[in-house]
Write a structure and sequence with these properties.
about 270 residues, alpha/beta, six-stranded mixed beta sheet
Length: about 270
Amino acid sequence: MSCLLQISDTHFGTEQPEVMAALERLAQALAPQVVVLSGDITQRATRRQFAAARAFVDRLAAPAVVAIPGNHDIPLFQLGARLFSPYGRYAGAFGTDLEPVFESADWLVVAVNTTRWWRHADGEVSPAQIERVAARLAGALPSQLRVVVTHQPVMVTRQEDMQNRLHGREAAVARWCAAGADLILGGHIHLPFVRSLHGAYAGCPRTAWAVQAGTAVSSRVRAGHPNSVNVLRLGAPEDGRVCQAERWDHSAADKAFVCAKVLQLPLASARAPA
């Protein structure tokens, strides 16, 4: 099955070499069609941290990489850089396109830059961004699994994370789901889970899913969750529209990432949205 590997919140500067090595081995075994980096690639947006992150991503040897900045990827303490070139260091490592799109016969992956230089941690999505993403989703092929990538989450599971939700999420989820989104991938809170958007948002008119990733290689694990990544696989045509969502956790004992959870996510019809 065609495979997408989601890696989030690597926070280079706090990376763990043994976990990185295990993730490199996993990527080589999986041979994903595309790797998605859903933000907070570095801890403090230094050139050295971005260079280390770029070298790591290159070692994964994926045919395609879709990356977006997180709030940690904008300089925090160097105010001149934050004000006049907030994405300069990010662009030096991962390119000037802050909202890349990846398309293949199986996947449409549309990335959204939800960071703002004037915000410390919070993210937001503008009406123009919402419409841009919706237009790309509406033009998807019937064979494509339609994925939107943000850094800050559109959904959380703990009361203490409520303030971390993406500003503008209600309008975005409603519009993107109506336009055909199947999955919205996020990071930021370092907690992996999958939840129904259709069940949580009254404005979501079709079956769609929020897929959150943990921290991939950083020591900044939370709530007892180990380092983890997500693997998404497109189901076989005879199974109908379905996505297999897998969480792979790092096992210190095994010195490897192991498959910890597998979910079969039913998807809505791929017919063109009204």
